[in-house]
Amino acid sequence: MNTPVSRTCRQVRVAGFTLIEMLIAAAIVAVMFAISLPRYQEHVQRAHRVEARTGLLQAAHWLERVATAQGTYPVSEDGASVLPAALRGVPGGRYAIALEASTPSAYTLVAEPQGAQSADACGRFTLDQTGARGVVHAGVRGDTDQVAACWGR
Prior knowledge:
This protein is of the alpha+beta class. It contains two helices and five strands. The protein has a five-stranded antiparallel sheet with strand order 1-2-3-4-5, with helices on one face. The longest helix is centred in the first third of the chain and has 52 residues, at 19-70. The model has no long low-confidence stretch (mean pLDDT 85). Pfam families: ComP_DUS, N_methyl. The chain crosses the membrane at residues 12-35.
């Protein structure tokens, strides 16, 4: 006579992960995060650089329109900015746009990094009335390769 085996006597195998498998998965995720975070931060800084360059070009366009209408570039008598408030910054707030030097026949615009963007390798962007583009980092003007790299991407 066969007696049925009770459920309490059966050994049930529970499917799951071991601690070692979980640690290996966590290590893989940590390595992927460590590799991707600097690239992400670099991508974000490049995106903010685009805003700075766009802001400089918009301010230069405004100055050219004023010069076309008045015959000269606007010059500040009392040191106040002649740029409209909308052109003194960028949407992300990471750069401040200023008219660094202005005469009736010339100007130099500067995009100064603000906040977290201050650590960016490109530093300050410059643009003058001839369209000459430049970068200044820690008071040192960038060479041609650095200017091309910062303005190009």
